[in-house]
Amino acid sequence: MKIPVEEGQEKGFLSDGRHTVEITNIEEGKSEKQGIPYFAARMENEEGFVSQRFYLSDAGRPVIMGLYEMVGIEPQAGHDLDTKQLIGKKLSVEVGDYTYNDPNSGSERTLRQASHFQRV
Fold first, then answer.
1. Hey, what domains does the chain have and what are their CATH numbers?
2. Per its UniProt entry, which superkingdom is the organism in (predicted)?
3. Which of 25, 32, 48, 92 qualifies as a cystine partner to 42, CB 3.0-4.6 A?
């Protein structure tokens, strides 16, 4: 079997720990279960990548505002933030696994995630 490797697919996940990364891509969508809008930021460096979803919800809004602040974009009341502004921005993230119980199946799931954003 031949496995095609497209550009951007040649890297594996970043290892656990703190990494300086660049946001290289943004994808937008809605959560599978509740239809909550989100954007997924691909963050990468020479060693690998991590993709992190940011949900546009009351609970997710402070995390989104914090992300923008850490890349040097100050949110202002009355002004929209464009996710495309994030592309090319650098920041420091903590990479690790997050385990939770899937509400639909009750089974345990693990995601690779970025958290604890810091300005570089």
1. 17-75+87-119 (2.40.50)
2. Bacteria
3. 25
